[in-house]
Structure formats: structure tokens, C-alpha cells
Amino acid sequence: MAARLRIALGQLNLLVGDVAGNVAKMIAAATRARDELRADVILFPELALTGYPPEDLLLRPDLSVRVELALGEMLRGISGIDVIVGYPKRQYGKLFNAASLLRGGKVITTYFKHILPNYGVFDEKRYFAEGDEPCVLDIKGQAIGLTICEDVWERGPVEQAVKAGAKLMLNLNASPFHRNKGRERFEVVARRARDNRVPIVYLNLVGGQDELVFDGDSFVVNARGEMTQRAPAFEEGLHLVEIKAGARMTPVPAAIAPDLPEEQSVYSALVLGVRDYIGKNGFAGAVIGLSGGVDSALTLCIAADAIGASRVEAVLMPSRYTAAMSLEDARSQAEALGVKHSTIPIEPMFEVFLGALKEEFQGRKPDSTEENIQARVRGTLLMAISNKTGRMVLTTGNKSEMSVGYATLYGDMAGGFAAIKDVPKTLVYRLAEYRNKIKPVIPRRVFERPPSAELAPDQKDTDSLPPYDVLDPILERYVELDQSAGDIIAAGFEEATVRRVLRMVDRNEYKRRQAAPGVRITPRAFGRDRRYPVTSGYGRGPDKPGGNGPAGGI
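C-alpha cells predicted for Glutamine-dependent NAD(+) synthetase:
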């Protein structure tokens, strides 16, 4: 019987659908774990063979064929170390979210996930059948239980494994990031360890996949629920865990990566999400409309940090309403970051549009229509540059604006990825301040000036919206916490403001349905999380949060 069990955590960044590439990466990691770490076993994340979440790829019959071939390749390509890997397995005429122990060219045993999450961003009941049997592995003479992700959030699966003899639990995960998620995970796992008096090794996926970011942050807790080891968040890597074997298995204390402050963790998630979306989709780089405001300033920083300044292009597109200081601040930031920048005035194009529409608009006063033409000219220019250079347009709208529709369809909403789509405006300022502490690149005036779209004379965001320190808490309660107008008013917010904000949220679902995907950093993001009908009479009900359907032309 081994005195110590050496477990390698394969905290890897995998690509959904790239079964062959994922297998090659895992074979290389297993070889390293065997030769450099002298590990007895290596763990890979939930559904590692396909990447997570594979979504409707799981409905394709040929995916199962690819998975079986890839599993065979792993069996042939890895020796001298046990491997535990997650993958979709078809058996008994059903599809299961599975994990298998591979040893000596054979599949020794397979576990089927019990608890299938079907909330928020998760749709596992759409694809998988539930398992119901515990799985206890014999590794180096030790009885080790195996669970997958959501299994550890409920009492049953870990209890079953411990009753079946498990002295240590291994939990494979693909758990996406949101603010404060790391603390939430640890508390759940620590409680499960204490309740069952068993250590738990928690391995998580890392990397960006469309809107989702997986932060890694893998860790180990002892039977008292105390953390004994944690891997760095947002970083790919192999990490060795040592467990003292015997009647009571005990994790050997090792490095505990620091718990990141909120601004650092959110910023890291945004950088990783942008880097992987651009890289995994094969874009040459990013192009951004740089206005001199805080949203585009933060987006430019994220892009430069994600893929390098040399692959980012900033375009300044002034109009008759653009303040001189906006251009000065935009150029100053681009130069501080070392980003290529150019200036394309939109006034000549704007004039052509107004001339072409002169007869159509005759007798009608200027309104948001003319404002939106400016935004759409800019969107056209950015998309043209994107087409020519292969660089993807990063949009710069924040969650506050997306919530209330303070954005222009086919204008500032035009682009491939929305870096700060899930970041409220008040958090945008905090993240920009955080980035400036690393190196001052955003001019001070950007923080001090009242925010403005600069689409009309002396325009300010507060002409159309409540102040952001009022707006954001209302939006959090309505969008993320599902509170009613009555609940929000009872919490101390002014009734007219609440009803106005909720009306704007409800009326602008049609815009959000057409928006680019963006990094998810809150528990309830637009898109995968919050799915509301565009055509709805809900706002006409007794609480009357607002009217419905497309309104205005923003």
C-alpha cells in the first residue's frame, strides 16, 4: 500500500468540439504528470474530451463516434499513470455525462453524473440521462469516490460514495465564473467534506467558451472542510496534490494561491474571455471604436492585455458633437498602450445620409433618428475595417446600457463580441481604476467627465437615464434577483424612477436578442442566463413594470 497518493490536477483550457486537439493536449499533460510530477493518477475536467458545454453537438451521432475513437487514442497513448477523464458516453440507449478511470490500455470503471443542472446557463437535462450508482475506485490500494460537478452541490452523491467505502472524493468540474463564485464553491465543498468526514479534491476547467469563462481555481479540502491547497485562478497548469494514505486519508498542505480581490478576478475573467473568443475563433486581432469615454477605454485595455497591443487597432470617429478633449484622451490612451490608432471623421458621411433623407424627413423635427445615423456610420466603418483586416470588432456597451436599451442597433451594437456586456457601469469605473493602478493608461479626465454618447449638443447620459449609482442597484434587483417593482420600491427607491427603468428593460428585449455575445461575470447575464420573450404582455400585469415591444429607434 502506497504511503502517499500523488494526484495531478489537469487544470486545462480545452476547445469545444475539438476532440482530437483535446485528446492530444491531455496525452501530453498525462505524460508530463507521469515523468515530471511522478503522479499516480491525473484528473481531467468534466466532459474534457468534447469541451464544455458542447450544447447541441451532443445531438450529432458522429460526435459519439469521434469520442469513442478519441478514448481509444487515449488508451493507446498513455501508460504508466492512471487517468480519470470526463466525456459523453452513450449506453443503454441513453447519453450520460460520464467519467472513466483509464489504466493499462483499458477502461476500468465508469461513473455517470447523478445531478444534472438545468438552470441559468445549464441545459444538461436536454441532453443527458441521470446516473444513480456510486463509484468507488481502487487506486494504489485506496478507496476513492468519484463525482462530477453538480453532484457535490447536493448531499446524495457524496454520501452514497462514502457509504460505499470511499475515503477520498474526486470531483471533476466545468464550473463557470461569476463574481464571488470561488467563495461560493469553497463553502459548498467544505460543507460536503465536513458532513461526510472525507477530503475532497475539486478540479475545475479553465478558459473562455463563448459567453462563459471557466476560472480554474481548483482546490483541496480536508475532512474538516479546511482548504489545504489551491491552484491559481484563470491560469492553465498541472498541479500536484499529495494525499497521506491509510485508514484516514489526509491531504498534505501545499501552496494556496491568493484569493483574488473582486476587481482583479472580474478583470482577469474579461481578459481570458476576450483572448479565447478571438483566439479560438481564429481572428487576426481586434478593432475598437475609441470614443474617449470610460467604456471604450476599459475595452481597449482588456483587448491589449488579452492579445497584445500589436494585434489591436483603435479607430477615432469624431462627429460635429465630439469634444476636443474626447479625441485628446482617446489618442493619449492608445499611445500609452502602444495601440495603433487612426482617425476617420464621420461628418462627410453623416451629411450624405442627411441629404439623402431630406425629403423623407421633411416636416419632421430632428430626434434620436439623427443620433442613430451617426452611430450606424461608425458601425459600418468598423465592420469594413474588420472585413479587410480579419480583426474582430469588439463592442463597448456595458450592462447598464444593454439593460435599458441605451444603445444603437447596427451602430455601437455592431460587432463580434461584447467584452463588457455583463459589466454594470459603476463596476466599469472600478475596473478602469483597477487597471490604472497596474499602469496609468486611461487619462484622469475620462473618470471625471460626465458620461455622454456625444450624439447631440451637450448631451449627457443623465438626460436619458437616472444616475448610474441609482440605475445599477435597480437593475441588479430586477434583472439578477427577479424582484418586482413593488419589491424594489419597498427597498427605498423612488417609484417613478423604478417604473421608468423597468419599462425600459422590458421594452428593449428585442435589442438584446440581436446583440453580440459577451463575457458573463454576474450570476444572471443576458443571453444564456436570462431568456425573455420579445413579444410579451407581461408588463401590462398588476405590477405594471412597463409596456412591451420595440419602442424608439435607439
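Residues 264-465+510-536 form a domain with the Rossmann fold fold (CATH 3.40.50.620).
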